[in-house]
Amino acid sequence: MKDIIRQLIIDFNEFEIPKPTTREAYAIPSLPDSVRKAFVYIGMRRSGKTWVMYDFMHRLMAGGIAKNQILYLDFTDDRLEAMTANDLQYILDVYFELNPELINNERIYFFFDEIQEIEGFDRFIRRLLDKEKMQIYITGSSARMLSKEISTVLRGRTIEQQVFPFDFFEYLENKNLKITKPYSSKDKYRLHSLLNEYLHVGGFPEVSHMEQLQRIEVLQGYVNSVVYKDIVERHEIKNIYAVRSFIHHCVKNPATQITINKIYNRFKSQGISVSKDLLYECFGYFEDSFCIFSVPLLTPSIERQQINPKKIYPVDTGLITAYSFSSNLNVSAMLETIVFLTLIRTYSKIFYYFTNKGGLEIDFVVLNSEDKPVLIQVCVDLNYNDTAQREFAALHQAMEELNTNKGYIVTMDTQRSMSIIPGTTVEVVSLLSFLHMDPDFLYKMAR
Fold first, then answer.
1. Which pTM value belongs to this model?
2. Structural domain of residue 7, as residue ranges?
3. What is the pLDDT of residues 390-423, one digit of tens each?
4. 125, 142, 162 — which closes off a domain?
């Protein structure tokens, strides 16, 4: 194993690091030398975590760091399949054998990609933080292996950030499309066309330039990788067909409420043999792999929140189109998914809500820094009176019940501001305007 590690380090030194799209949202902060933290980037496979590392490597080298002061290892490399936690020491041994002049250098940077593949890696990272001087950067595709479990060993020694596929503006930059404000009428038309394209293509970096059939095949491969590597192999599940059927159902039905009982009965009617316990476990694994997200019901009762269905969203709208026939695509659900993915990048307290009077649904209730609610409805357009009346009626009732003064309706292209209760405001904003908003804008809203 030591010889394999030696070869991988030598190969990296000769490797021309790709120059990715810069993603300012994931810029690695500077820390005082006295603060020892491991930077942990987590997210679904192929969402761009490695490219965030590459971008930082370029920034380091632009700042005067030599290539040999950077070590990078990809633990999904098949040559490292037999590696164990005891072999991790070889990384230090080989690196300093190749670079003896750097033994006491504090400006060394170790990048470990998908290191959760090595059971017991966390103890090695802890030792590096305690005994060595290099800066450590980690990626991983499992919340259970990193966010939930590593913290018990590293005891607050990590700074974690979740990496998502490209947002719309990163998508444009990756395609070398520069459209700057103020927008002309022609620019606005082009942006709306590109936004519609983004809804269907999604933001996974690798597929943004692919033709449709190739893109669908690759995106389905990503989901299969989650099923086999993050769920079936890791948790030793035998019922592969049921797991695949379940995750496909989740991806194809975004912005819907899910209950295990309904899924169980549905599968039973289709002749798919699976236990409810496995379905509960698998749904947790889907979330741990960052492929599927869930939003709970807003209610003061924890028990009621736990027994009520959750709404589900995939990590990227491209996955929806990869598993749906074009004629069956639900544009409203895709629009709601984009709004959710924009919110989840900044806010952790996101719920949906049913009014006590009339049972009217509010798509999102986001609690700001003071736990004050801001209401967000999603609607493709408000051109039909019955649609507009339904959306405003739900907001009106929810505003009264939740005692809040601010709400939004996000549409594909409508813009206007109005009051539906004295002292309150509802902003009807286009999706493009919503995506342009300051990421922290909700923290500034609500009384």
1. 0.91
2. 2-162
3. 888 899 999 999 998 888 999 998 777 766 667 7
4. 162
Residues 10 and 137 both lie in one domain: yes
Residue 340 counted as domain residue: no
Could you give the maximum distance between any two Cα atoms of the chain, in Å? Answer: 74
| 102 contacts 68 by C-beta, under 8 angstroms | yes
Q: What is the CATH number of the domain that holds 99?
A: 3.40.50.300
Residues 63, 51: Cα–Cα separation, whole Å: 18
If DSSP states are collapsed to H, E and C, what string results for the chain?
Answer: CHHHHHHHHHHHHHCCCCCCCCCHHHCCCCCCCCCCCEEEEECCCCCCHHHHHHHHHHHHHHCCCCHHHEEEEECCCHHHCCCCHHHHHHHHHHHHHHCHHHCCCCCCEEEEECHHHCCCHHHHHHHHHHHCCCEEEEEECCCHHHHHCHHHHHCCCEEEEECCCCCHHHHHHHCCCCCCCCCCHHHHHHHHHHHHHHHHHCCCHHHCCCCHHHHHHHHHHHHHHHHHHHHHHHHCCCCHHHHHHHHHHHHHCCCEEECHHHHHHHHHHCCCCCCHHHHHHHHHHHHHCCCEEEECECCCCHHHHHHCCEEEEECCHHHHHHCCCHHHCCHHHHHHHHHHHHHHCCCCCEEEEECCCCCCEEEEEEECCCCCEEEEEECCCCCCHHHHHHHHHHHHHHHHHHCCCEEEEEECCCCEEECCCCCCEEEEEEHHHHHHCCCCHHHHCCC
pLDDT at 146: 54
Provide the pLDDT for residue 145. 54
pLDDT at residue number 296: 96
Q: What is the per-residue pLDDT for 447?
A: 45
Whether residue 315 is found in the same domain as residue 397: no
Q: How far apart are CA 306 and CA 392, in angstroms?
A: 28
So what's the pLDDT on residue 52?
Answer: 92
Q: Do 95 and 117 fall into the same domain?
A: yes
Interatomic CA distance for residues 267 and 281, integer angstroms: 16
Residue finishing a domain among 273, 300, 329: 329
CA distance 54 to 23: 11
Rounded alpha-carbon distances, angstroms, from residue 170 to 24, 205, 442:
10, 9, 22
Total tally of structural domains belonging to the chain: 3
Ranges of residues in the chain with a pLDDT under 70 are: 33, 143-155, 327-328, 418-421, 440-447
